Amino acid sequence: MFRTRRLRKHEGIRRLVRETKVSVDDFVYPLFIEEGENIETEIVSMPGIKRFSLDRISKELDEVVSLNIPAVLLFGIPSHKDDEGTETWNDNGIMQQAIRFIKKNYPSLYVITDVCFCEYTSHGHCGIIHDNDVDNDATLVNIAKQVISHAKAGVDMVAPSGMMDGTIDMIRQSLDNTGFVNLPIMAYAVKYASAFYGPFRDAADSAPSFGDRRTYQMDPANRDEGMREATFDDQEGADILMVKPALSYLDIIRDLKNSFDRPIACYNVSGEYAMVKAAAEKGWIDGERVMMESLLSMKRAGADIIITYFAKEAAKVLLKK
Description:
The protein has 321 residues and is α/β, with parallel strands linked by helices. The chain is built from 11 helices and 12 strands. Helices cover 39% and strands 17% of the residues. The radius of gyration is 20 Å and the shape is globular. Mg(2+) binds at residue 229.
Protein backbone atom coordinates (compact mmCIF):
# COMPACT_ATOMS: atom_id res chain seq x y z
CA MET A 1 0.00 0.00 0.00
CA PHE A 2 1.22 3.47 -0.79
CA ARG A 3 1.54 5.36 2.50
CA THR A 4 2.02 9.06 1.80
CA ARG A 5 1.38 9.69 5.49
CA ARG A 6 4.89 8.44 6.29
CA LEU A 7 6.19 11.85 5.31
CA ARG A 8 3.72 13.67 7.57
CA LYS A 9 4.44 11.82 10.80
CA HIS A 10 6.67 14.40 12.49
CA GLU A 11 7.25 18.14 12.18
CA GLY A 12 10.87 17.47 11.29
CA ILE A 13 10.00 15.49 8.17
CA ARG A 14 7.20 17.90 7.28
CA ARG A 15 9.76 20.69 7.26
CA LEU A 16 12.18 18.69 5.15
CA VAL A 17 9.66 17.91 2.40
CA ARG A 18 7.74 21.19 2.47
CA GLU A 19 7.42 22.42 -1.11
CA THR A 20 6.48 26.07 -0.52
CA LYS A 21 7.75 28.47 2.09
CA VAL A 22 6.73 32.05 2.84
CA SER A 23 9.49 34.42 3.86
CA VAL A 24 9.57 38.02 5.03
CA ASP A 25 11.65 38.60 1.90
CA ASP A 26 8.45 38.10 -0.12
CA PHE A 27 6.60 41.06 1.43
CA VAL A 28 5.85 44.61 0.34
CA TYR A 29 3.98 46.67 2.94
CA PRO A 30 1.52 49.34 1.70
CA LEU A 31 1.55 52.71 3.46
CA PHE A 32 -1.01 55.52 3.26
CA ILE A 33 0.58 58.94 3.69
CA GLU A 34 -1.69 61.94 4.09
CA GLU A 35 -0.71 65.54 3.56
CA GLY A 36 -0.90 67.55 6.76
CA GLU A 37 0.39 67.33 10.31
CA ASN A 38 -0.28 65.23 13.40
CA ILE A 39 -2.33 62.65 11.47
CA GLU A 40 -2.49 59.04 12.66
CA THR A 41 -5.94 57.76 11.81
CA GLU A 42 -6.96 54.11 11.95
CA ILE A 43 -8.96 52.93 8.95
CA VAL A 44 -12.13 51.46 10.44
CA SER A 45 -12.64 48.87 7.71
CA MET A 46 -8.97 47.78 7.92
CA PRO A 47 -8.16 47.17 11.61
CA GLY A 48 -4.52 47.85 12.37
CA ILE A 49 -3.91 49.94 9.25
CA LYS A 50 -3.60 53.72 9.51
CA ARG A 51 -3.19 56.88 7.51
CA PHE A 52 -0.14 58.86 8.62
CA SER A 53 1.22 62.32 8.06
CA LEU A 54 4.97 62.39 7.59
CA ASP A 55 5.57 63.82 11.06
CA ARG A 56 3.86 60.76 12.62
CA ILE A 57 5.14 57.93 10.43
CA SER A 58 8.57 57.26 11.92
CA LYS A 59 7.33 54.76 14.53
CA GLU A 60 5.63 52.75 11.79
CA LEU A 61 8.73 52.80 9.59
CA ASP A 62 10.95 51.87 12.54
CA GLU A 63 8.83 48.75 13.03
CA VAL A 64 8.89 47.87 9.34
CA VAL A 65 12.70 48.09 9.32
CA SER A 66 13.06 46.16 12.59
CA LEU A 67 11.00 43.32 11.10
CA ASN A 68 13.32 43.24 8.07
CA ILE A 69 10.48 43.88 5.59
CA PRO A 70 12.36 44.87 2.44
CA ALA A 71 9.97 47.23 0.69
CA VAL A 72 7.04 49.60 1.05
CA LEU A 73 4.41 50.69 -1.48
CA LEU A 74 3.35 54.30 -1.00
CA PHE A 75 -0.09 55.79 -1.57
CA GLY A 76 -0.41 59.54 -1.23
CA ILE A 77 -3.49 61.41 -0.01
CA PRO A 78 -3.21 65.10 -0.93
CA SER A 79 -4.93 68.06 0.67
CA HIS A 80 -5.87 69.44 -2.76
CA LYS A 81 -7.68 67.62 -5.56
CA ASP A 82 -8.71 68.77 -9.03
CA ASP A 83 -10.10 67.36 -12.26
CA GLU A 84 -6.72 66.20 -13.58
CA GLY A 85 -4.91 65.26 -10.38
CA THR A 86 -2.16 67.79 -10.96
CA GLU A 87 -0.74 67.22 -7.47
CA THR A 88 0.64 63.90 -8.75
CA TRP A 89 3.43 65.69 -10.61
CA ASN A 90 3.99 68.44 -8.04
CA ASP A 91 7.67 68.02 -7.15
CA ASN A 92 6.80 69.04 -3.59
CA GLY A 93 3.64 66.97 -3.38
CA ILE A 94 2.93 64.53 -0.58
CA MET A 95 4.25 61.52 -2.52
CA GLN A 96 7.45 63.28 -3.48
CA GLN A 97 7.97 64.47 0.11
CA ALA A 98 7.41 60.93 1.36
CA ILE A 99 9.93 59.46 -1.07
CA ARG A 100 12.61 61.92 0.00
CA PHE A 101 11.82 61.44 3.72
CA ILE A 102 12.06 57.66 3.59
CA LYS A 103 15.14 57.51 1.39
CA LYS A 104 16.93 59.95 3.70
CA ASN A 105 15.91 58.42 7.03
CA TYR A 106 15.42 54.74 6.13
CA PRO A 107 17.91 54.09 3.34
CA SER A 108 17.61 50.30 3.67
CA LEU A 109 13.94 50.39 2.64
CA TYR A 110 13.11 49.87 -1.01
CA VAL A 111 10.50 52.48 -1.96
CA ILE A 112 7.83 51.73 -4.57
CA THR A 113 5.19 54.30 -5.49
CA ASP A 114 1.66 53.86 -6.73
CA VAL A 115 1.30 55.75 -10.00
CA CYS A 116 -2.33 56.68 -10.48
CA PHE A 117 -4.78 59.57 -10.14
CA CYS A 118 -7.81 58.32 -8.22
CA GLU A 119 -6.56 59.66 -4.85
CA TYR A 120 -5.78 63.03 -6.47
CA THR A 121 -8.79 63.73 -8.70
CA SER A 122 -11.95 65.46 -7.55
CA HIS A 123 -14.02 62.81 -9.36
CA GLY A 124 -12.09 59.79 -8.03
CA HIS A 125 -11.37 58.23 -11.42
CA CYS A 126 -7.94 57.19 -12.68
CA GLY A 127 -7.36 59.93 -15.23
CA ILE A 128 -8.82 62.77 -17.28
CA ILE A 129 -12.58 62.55 -17.84
CA HIS A 130 -14.06 63.14 -21.30
CA ASP A 131 -17.65 62.18 -22.09
CA ASN A 132 -18.13 60.54 -18.69
CA ASP A 133 -15.23 58.14 -19.15
CA VAL A 134 -11.46 58.21 -18.67
CA ASP A 135 -9.64 59.45 -21.75
CA ASN A 136 -6.89 56.87 -22.15
CA ASP A 137 -4.36 58.80 -24.25
CA ALA A 138 -4.78 62.16 -22.53
CA THR A 139 -4.20 60.38 -19.22
CA LEU A 140 -0.97 58.82 -20.51
CA VAL A 141 0.53 62.30 -20.95
CA ASN A 142 -0.07 63.02 -17.26
CA ILE A 143 1.21 59.59 -16.20
CA ALA A 144 4.54 60.51 -17.81
CA LYS A 145 4.68 63.73 -15.77
CA GLN A 146 3.91 61.81 -12.59
CA VAL A 147 6.58 59.12 -12.97
CA ILE A 148 9.29 61.63 -13.86
CA SER A 149 8.45 63.60 -10.72
CA HIS A 150 8.67 60.43 -8.61
CA ALA A 151 11.95 59.53 -10.26
CA LYS A 152 13.45 62.93 -9.54
CA ALA A 153 12.41 62.55 -5.88
CA GLY A 154 14.46 59.33 -5.68
CA VAL A 155 11.94 56.48 -5.86
CA ASP A 156 13.32 52.95 -6.36
CA MET A 157 10.44 51.57 -8.46
CA VAL A 158 7.16 52.81 -9.93
CA ALA A 159 3.95 50.80 -10.01
CA PRO A 160 1.25 52.19 -12.36
CA SER A 161 -2.18 50.95 -11.27
CA GLY A 162 -4.64 52.73 -13.55
CA MET A 163 -4.96 50.10 -16.32
CA MET A 164 -4.66 52.58 -19.17
CA ASP A 165 -3.65 50.93 -22.45
CA GLY A 166 -0.06 51.77 -23.37
CA THR A 167 0.94 52.83 -19.84
CA ILE A 168 4.10 50.74 -19.60
CA ASP A 169 5.36 51.87 -23.00
CA MET A 170 4.74 55.52 -22.10
CA ILE A 171 6.48 55.19 -18.74
CA ARG A 172 9.47 53.28 -20.11
CA GLN A 173 10.04 55.80 -22.87
CA SER A 174 9.61 58.76 -20.51
CA LEU A 175 12.04 57.37 -17.95
CA ASP A 176 14.61 56.37 -20.56
CA ASN A 177 14.44 59.77 -22.27
CA THR A 178 15.05 61.62 -18.99
CA GLY A 179 18.01 59.53 -17.83
CA PHE A 180 16.20 57.09 -15.54
CA VAL A 181 16.98 54.01 -17.61
CA ASN A 182 17.65 51.88 -14.54
CA LEU A 183 14.37 52.63 -12.77
CA PRO A 184 12.17 49.47 -12.84
CA ILE A 185 8.43 49.24 -13.44
CA MET A 186 6.06 46.90 -11.62
CA ALA A 187 3.03 46.64 -13.88
CA TYR A 188 -0.45 46.11 -12.51
CA ALA A 189 -0.63 43.83 -15.50
CA VAL A 190 -3.84 42.00 -14.61
CA LYS A 191 -6.08 44.17 -12.44
CA TYR A 192 -9.72 43.24 -12.10
CA ALA A 193 -12.71 45.50 -11.42
CA SER A 194 -13.14 43.82 -8.07
CA ALA A 195 -15.51 44.25 -5.14
CA PHE A 196 -12.58 43.38 -2.88
CA TYR A 197 -11.22 46.95 -3.14
CA GLY A 198 -13.93 48.47 -0.93
CA PRO A 199 -11.92 49.18 2.24
CA PHE A 200 -9.04 50.64 0.20
CA ARG A 201 -11.34 53.41 -0.96
CA ASP A 202 -11.87 54.34 2.68
CA ALA A 203 -8.11 54.26 3.22
CA ALA A 204 -7.12 56.31 0.18
CA ASP A 205 -10.23 58.50 -0.14
CA SER A 206 -10.50 57.34 -3.76
CA ALA A 207 -14.07 56.21 -4.40
CA PRO A 208 -15.33 57.40 -7.81
CA SER A 209 -17.97 60.12 -7.57
CA PHE A 210 -19.93 58.61 -10.48
CA GLY A 211 -20.03 55.30 -12.30
CA ASP A 212 -17.37 52.66 -11.72
CA ARG A 213 -14.06 51.51 -13.22
CA ARG A 214 -15.26 48.65 -15.37
CA THR A 215 -14.36 50.38 -18.64
CA TYR A 216 -10.66 50.21 -17.76
CA GLN A 217 -10.25 47.51 -15.10
CA MET A 218 -10.81 43.91 -16.15
CA ASP A 219 -13.96 41.79 -16.01
CA PRO A 220 -13.51 39.19 -13.21
CA ALA A 221 -14.90 36.53 -15.56
CA ASN A 222 -11.99 36.80 -18.00
CA ARG A 223 -8.90 34.63 -17.80
CA ASP A 224 -7.54 34.72 -21.36
CA GLU A 225 -7.78 38.49 -21.40
CA GLY A 226 -5.46 38.57 -18.41
CA MET A 227 -2.81 36.81 -20.47
CA ARG A 228 -3.23 39.36 -23.25
CA GLU A 229 -2.89 42.25 -20.81
CA ALA A 230 0.23 40.73 -19.24
CA THR A 231 1.74 40.05 -22.67
CA PHE A 232 1.32 43.69 -23.71
CA ASP A 233 2.98 44.92 -20.50
CA ASP A 234 5.79 42.40 -20.87
CA GLN A 235 6.45 43.51 -24.45
CA GLU A 236 6.32 47.19 -23.47
CA GLY A 237 9.08 46.78 -20.91
CA ALA A 238 7.60 45.91 -17.51
CA ASP A 239 10.15 44.43 -15.11
CA ILE A 240 7.60 42.77 -12.80
CA LEU A 241 4.05 41.62 -13.61
CA MET A 242 1.37 41.88 -10.93
CA VAL A 243 -2.03 40.27 -10.44
CA LYS A 244 -4.63 42.12 -8.36
CA PRO A 245 -6.50 40.92 -6.31
CA ALA A 246 -4.72 37.77 -5.17
CA LEU A 247 -6.95 35.21 -3.45
CA SER A 248 -9.77 35.05 -5.97
CA TYR A 249 -7.28 35.03 -8.85
CA LEU A 250 -4.73 32.38 -7.87
CA ASP A 251 -5.30 30.72 -11.24
CA ILE A 252 -4.19 33.92 -12.97
CA ILE A 253 -1.05 34.11 -10.83
CA ARG A 254 -0.20 30.56 -11.92
CA ASP A 255 -0.93 31.39 -15.58
CA LEU A 256 1.57 34.26 -15.47
CA LYS A 257 4.16 32.23 -13.59
CA ASN A 258 3.99 29.51 -16.23
CA SER A 259 4.14 31.93 -19.16
CA PHE A 260 6.60 34.73 -18.32
CA ASP A 261 10.24 34.71 -17.37
CA ARG A 262 9.82 37.67 -15.03
CA PRO A 263 9.11 38.04 -11.31
CA ILE A 264 5.39 37.74 -10.58
CA ALA A 265 3.75 39.86 -7.88
CA CYS A 266 0.29 39.75 -6.38
CA TYR A 267 -1.66 42.24 -4.29
CA ASN A 268 -3.42 40.78 -1.24
CA VAL A 269 -6.00 43.56 -1.26
CA SER A 270 -7.94 45.39 1.40
CA GLY A 271 -11.14 43.33 1.19
CA GLU A 272 -9.19 40.09 1.58
CA TYR A 273 -7.47 41.56 4.62
CA ALA A 274 -10.69 42.94 6.12
CA MET A 275 -12.58 39.62 5.81
CA VAL A 276 -9.92 37.75 7.76
CA LYS A 277 -9.77 40.46 10.40
CA ALA A 278 -13.57 40.59 10.82
CA ALA A 279 -14.01 36.83 11.05
CA ALA A 280 -11.12 36.53 13.50
CA GLU A 281 -12.60 39.28 15.67
CA LYS A 282 -15.86 37.31 15.79
CA GLY A 283 -13.95 34.21 16.85
CA TRP A 284 -15.11 32.33 13.77
CA ILE A 285 -11.59 31.55 12.51
CA ASP A 286 -8.04 31.38 13.80
CA GLY A 287 -6.91 34.67 12.26
CA GLU A 288 -3.18 33.98 12.44
CA ARG A 289 -3.44 30.57 10.79
CA VAL A 290 -5.80 31.81 8.08
CA MET A 291 -3.47 34.75 7.39
CA MET A 292 -0.47 32.49 6.96
CA GLU A 293 -2.39 29.91 4.91
CA SER A 294 -3.66 32.65 2.59
CA LEU A 295 -0.16 34.03 2.04
CA LEU A 296 1.13 30.50 1.47
CA SER A 297 -1.52 29.94 -1.22
CA MET A 298 -0.30 33.02 -3.10
CA LYS A 299 3.29 31.83 -2.95
CA ARG A 300 2.27 28.31 -3.98
CA ALA A 301 0.34 29.72 -6.94
CA GLY A 302 3.55 31.31 -8.17
CA ALA A 303 3.88 34.78 -6.64
CA ASP A 304 7.46 35.86 -6.03
CA ILE A 305 6.33 39.12 -4.37
CA ILE A 306 3.29 39.59 -2.11
CA ILE A 307 1.99 43.08 -1.45
CA THR A 308 0.03 42.68 1.77
CA TYR A 309 -1.36 44.60 4.72
CA PHE A 310 -0.47 41.51 6.77
CA ALA A 311 3.26 42.08 6.22
CA LYS A 312 4.07 43.18 9.76
CA GLU A 313 1.91 40.54 11.44
CA ALA A 314 3.18 37.77 9.19
CA ALA A 315 6.78 38.86 9.73
CA LYS A 316 6.28 38.54 13.50
CA VAL A 317 4.85 35.03 13.08
CA LEU A 318 7.80 34.01 10.91
CA LEU A 319 10.25 35.43 13.46
CA LYS A 320 8.62 33.37 16.22
CA LYS A 321 9.05 30.24 14.13
